[in-house]
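Good morning C.,

I know you're traveling, so I'll keep this short. The sequence:
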Amino acid sequence: MGEINPYRLKISQLRALVAIADLGTFSDAALQLDLSQSAVSHAIATLEEELGVILLSRGRQGAVLTPVGEEITAEARGILQSLAGLCKLAQQFRGLQSGQVRVAGFRSVATHLLPTVIARFQQQHPQLSVTIDEHHHYRDVEEAVRQGRADVGFTYLPTSPDFRVWELLRDRYLALLPPSAAGIQSPIDWQTLTQYPLILSPADDGDRQVLTRYLGRYGVSLQPAYEVREDSTIISMVRRGLGAAIMAHLAAEPIPNDIVTAEFAEPLERVIGVIVLAEALQTPAVYAFLETLKAVWLRADNEPATAVEPS
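The tokens, ready to paste straight into the viewer:
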């Protein structure tokens, strides 16, 4: 027998074979495929002729796959599934002809992380647009995503099980001291830090709440001399010698050269993650944005972070 030419096989033949395997009769397969029974019989006959094997045993009880028919049917299913995946992928790119991605985050993310992502995204998809909604508190970001006012959010981890989550980065906190503190030892201890008037964000700020929870583990309570919401204002006050601050490194950037920075002996960091609503059907534009984000900021092997409510 000659060698089988795979390019002579037809998708219609494979569909007929799988339909018969699923339904058990030629007539039921014909009904499902919206074909005549003779067309289905012809498809199977020509497929068996091309392959040179018998795929189905016909009888009064219907059609039963032969042993080789079972193996070939399994391969046919895989081929049809691959074709469906190909069409799905093409459909996604057809959906990328226009669209918008709504991003919610806090200032340091919007300032230092998003511009690189958006620049790459618009190089790849110039027909798509991105809007950014800044919030002072990470809880407001989560609520915007939860209520459908944002497609993608940047928040602190761990978070709610309402979201699908990827860890983006771990941002350590620093002590920022005035220029007069030059030569101070790092890591710094709390007793040394509290010798300075403290400039902190307000009690309702997300960073302040993270800091308060952290210090509570060590029995430390800080009494700020000033409560200031804007990061740039805090930096300016430290430079003027009005006190010391505790800020996440990303929020403090760019740190002026004359400000003295010190690490803490105990690990102190905020974990920043990317969230989308777990049960939402995302648009192709959102999927494309997430792929760009992962390519720019995430390790290829990074798994979704655990989604639990912080204590």
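Safe travels,
E.
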